[in-house]
Design brief:
There is one protein chain. The protein is an alpha/beta fold. It folds into 3 domains: 171 residues, Molybdenum Cofactor Biosythetic Enzyme, Chain A, CATH 3.40.980; 77 residues, Alpha-Beta Plaits (2-Layer Sandwich), CATH 3.30.70; 156 residues, CinA-like (Maf protein, Alpha-Beta Complex), CATH 3.90.950.20. It contains 14 helices and 17 strands.
Length: 413
């Protein structure tokens, strides 16, 4: 069974509102075992919404519309659904009566346009909306099902997670689509794909890669009669991917790299101190976002100026003069300084040029050095990132956390 989602609202097309409802609805569809094939956004125009409804119903079994059920003239969804289905609109007297009572009880003025919310296509039934005046709709005709949900968050979420989820589950007969995401660091998307290419040809579970800055995700998706059953289908493929990729897999689903680093250091009973230049405190901020990080994180230095590197971290002036602030030697000295001054097991030093132009020593934009100091010595990693200034800084913080994780794991084995 397949579905499409149609979001209605000119404000969405203008970028004035970010559509968070469609992703939520897509997850609900997946939970109910229904494949979402397409998401569409259309403005508040009757003919265009009706055309979009017709196009969607020509190619899917279930359509979910979001928004456009209010009382004003630009709320055209119910009219468009009726037009696309060849239905007339029927006004339910008892619904109109409840609307009139609702407005009277609050001393609010009544307008005849409000009564439009009591209209439904002939093939539709109302879905109760306890949090608003516009009921939802479920239409069943010609083997197709259309759900129409209101746009306000406080009305959409309870309806989507409640009666609509239940009806979708009954349509599919209880099957679910469940996904697990493996998060990978230290490998590019192409390399990851090369290593798991044969697994990507499977249907249940399916394996699909997608890239993030300095990180790759593999989505494993299975169909079963329950989430527990889908997990059992996923498990052997998960195990094979981990066997092939090894320590590059750092987390599952929503686990962030900083969470993985904190957990690893906690397991090792190790601590870390940070010295940042290019990242300007972002690494410390990411670590301290993790609850319980105080067990492993001692603190950090943001040493942007040369004088700060010398005075706070003890970076030798001769190193800065000879090699420059963006150099492996400076990153090493920063890492050693952080470890020594904070008394930690690991010291992390990060320096680089985020742009927009080459630095005074001619070091190119995107050149970043990450150093990790420990009792075993110092490891330095060179990176050359592309992108805007904020992209480079984000990638540098990601590379720094990956470096700490890699060194710590290496010392575990």
């Amino acid at each position: 069974m397949t579905a499409e989602i149609l979001s209605v609202g000119t404000e969405l097309l203008l970028g004035q509102i970010v559509d968070t409802h469609a992703p939520r609805m897509a997850r609900i569809l997946a939970d109910c075992g229904i494949s979402c094939m397409r998401r569409t956004t259309v403005g508040d125009n009757l003919e265009r919404v009706a055309e979009a409804v017709g196009e969607s119903l020509a190619g899917c079994d279930v359509l979910v519309t979001i928004g456009g059920l209010g009382p004003t003239m630009d709320d055209v969804t119910r009219d468009a659904i009726a037009q696309a289905l060849g239905d007339s609109l029927i006004r339910e007297a008892d619904v109109e009566s409840r609307l009139r009572q609702f407005f009277a009880s609050r001393g609010a003025a009544w307008s005849e346009t409000i009564a439009r919310q009591a209209d439904r296509p002939e093939s539709a039934q109302f879905i109760e909306n306890p949090n608003g005046t516009a009921p939802g709709l479920v239409c069943e005709k010609n083997g197709k099902t259309v759900f129409a949900l209101p746009g306000p968050k406080g009305e959409f979420n309870p309806m989507a997670d409640g009666p609509v989820r239940q009806m979708l589950g009954r349509l599919q007969g209880g099957q679910v689509i469940h996904s697990r995401v493996l998060r990978i660091v230290g490998m590019g998307e192409s390399h990851v794909e090369d290593l798991v290419r044969d697994l990507m040809s499977g249907d249940n579970p399916s394996v699909a890669p997608y890239a993030h800055p300095n990180e790759v995700h593999l989505r494993l998706t299975a169909r079963s009669q329950s989430i527990e059953g889908a997990e059992k289908v996923i498990e052997p493929v998960d195990a094979e991917i981990r066997r092939r990729l090894g320590d590059a897999v750092f987390g599952v689903d929503d686990v962030t790299l900083e969470e993985a680093v904190v957990e690893l250091l906690r397991e090792c009973s190790k601590t870390v101190g940070v010295a940042e230049s290019i990242t300007g405190g972002e690494i410390c901020a990411r670590i301290t976002n993790v609850p319980g990080c105080s067990e492993v994180f001692a603190g950090g230095f943001v040493t942007y100026a040369l004088e700060a590197k010398i005075e706070l971290l003890g970076v030798p002036k001769t190193v800065l003069e000879r090699f420059g602030p963006v150099s492996s030697e400076t990153a090493q000295a920063m890492a050693e300084g952080a470890r020594e001054r904070l008394g930690t097991d690991f010291g992390l030093g990060v320096t680089g040029n985020a742009g927009p132009t080459s630095d005074i020593d001619g070091k190119p934009v995107g050149l970043v050095y990450v150093a990790v100091a420990s009792s075993s010595g110092v490891e330095v990693f060179e990176h050359r990132f592309r992108g805007l200034r904020e992209d480079i800084r984000r990638r540098a913080s990601q590379a720094a956390l990956a470096a700490v994780r890699g060194v710590a794991r290496g010392q575990q084995h």
